[in-house]
Amino acid sequence: MPLPLATRAPAKINLTLHVLGRRADGYHDLESLVAFAGTGDDLRLEPGRTLALDVRGPTAPLAGSDSDNLVLKAARLLAERVEGLKVGTFHLVKRLPVAAGIGGGSSDAAAALRLLARLNGLSLTHPALREAARLTGADVPVCLEPRARMMRGAGEEIGPPLGLPRLFAVLVNPRVPVETPAVFRALGLRPGEALPGARHPAVAGLSANALVGVLQEGRNDLEAPARALQPLIGEALGLLRDTPGCRLARMSGSGATAFGLYGDAATAAEAGRRLSKLRPGWWVRATSLR
Ligand SMILES: C[C@@](CO)(OP(=O)(O)O)[C@H](O)COP(=O)(O)OP(=O)(O)OC[C@H]1O[C@@H](n2ccc(N)nc2=O)[C@H](O)[C@@H]1O
Ligand SMILES: Nc1ncnc2c1ncn2[C@@H]1O[C@H](COP(=O)(O)OP(=O)(O)O)[C@@H](O)[C@H]1O
């Protein structure tokens, strides 16, 4: 039986994000431990003669015009590289907050490439697919096969899957968009300038407890510039830190989404309920990461 042409586009969480410096081309070299959440958007592909997209779901109105959607950008880039690529209409259910540091658009684009690969019998390691991912956006390659990995370079160097233990988390977004380029700009590095810092410690094979210990020693270098641009990020981090059992609270990506880590699912769920009550207008999800 053929595989169904539907897939989840999970939220991407940067458990750590170390900026090593700014390259001559303006992009920043990163070292980031990336994991994926149990919550996300959903994408389906209905095979057809032409490429099209229909977007629904609670955050659809925030995702910009359909023609600029990263789903179509990724699909077009692949079609330019694979002669006779079979395409169709994508149906996206958009649930993740937009411009939120959790790579919603990147994960949607990667999901589109997975579905096109399935429809066309291409491997996910096919060079055209890899290239289309990289050209769609810095975060797309790590989302192609969404399993926890180290991401390096500007996002194009992807390590092997790490098989991390499941982490129990709450994701909090104050529903304010934060633009990624503005946050990188606010770091204030000149092209060619490096930031000193230790190499990222190895995390493969650690227990959940030991992993959280290592994460506590890490950081997100974009947190300070993002907080300066959007003070609600500091508020979200403070509220997470005050929930019982919170072992670590940190921002993901360029923000504004913050995550808290907890020892088990029940403690995370309770923290999620508490935060939803405190900030009913915010996007709050208890989930697991791996
Ligand atoms: C910061 C991260 C961390 O995972 O996540 P998000 O906050 O987007 O989720 C990513 O590096 C974002 O990836 P993505 O959002 O795909 O970035 P792109 O669209 O390729 O680039 C947007 C802009 O961000 C800056 N940029 C991006 C990646 C990078 N390594 N260095 C950069 O300087 C550049 O100014 C670029 O023009
Ligand atoms: N499928 C999509 N989902 C969300 N945003 C999209 C999508 N396609 C294009 N965009 C555009 O990409 C920008 C970044 O969105 P997103 O991927 O959600 O950011 P982040 O990586 O910071 O979470 C948005 O401003 C939006 O206009």
TrEMBL record:
Pfam families: GHMP_kinases_C, GHMP_kinases_N. Residues 217-277 form the GHMP kinase C-terminal domain. It catalyses: 4-CDP-2-C-methyl-D-erythritol + ATP = 4-CDP-2-C-methyl-D-erythritol 2-phosphate + ADP + H(+). Keywords: ATP-binding, Isoprene biosynthesis, Kinase, Nucleotide-binding, Transferase. Transmembrane segments: none annotated. Its EC number is 2.7.1.148. The active site is at K12, D139. Residues 69-144 form the GHMP kinase N-terminal domain. Pathway: Isoprenoid biosynthesis; isopentenyl diphosphate biosynthesis via DXP pathway; isopentenyl diphosphate from 1-deoxy-D-xylulose 5-phosphate: step 3/6. InterPro entries: GHMP_kinase_C_dom, GHMP_kinase_C_sf, GHMP_kinase_N_dom, IspE, Ribosomal_Su5_D2-typ_SF, Ribsml_uS5_D2-typ_fold_subgr. One of its GO terms (biological process) is terpenoid biosynthetic process. GO terms for molecular function: 4-(cytidine 5'-diphospho)-2-C-methyl-D-erythritol kinase activity; ATP binding. ATP binds at P97, V98, A99, A100, G101, I102, G103, G104, G105, S106, S107. It is an enzyme of class 2 (transferase). Catalyzes the phosphorylation of the position 2 hydroxy group of 4-diphosphocytidyl-2C-methyl-D-erythritol. NCBIfam families: ispE, PRK14608.1. Belongs to the GHMP kinase family. IspE subfamily. PANTHER family: 4-DIPHOSPHOCYTIDYL-2-C-METHYL-D-ERYTHRITOL KINASE, CHLOROPLASTIC (PTHR43527). This is 4-diphosphocytidyl-2-C-methyl-D-erythritol kinase. It comes from Microvirga flocculans.
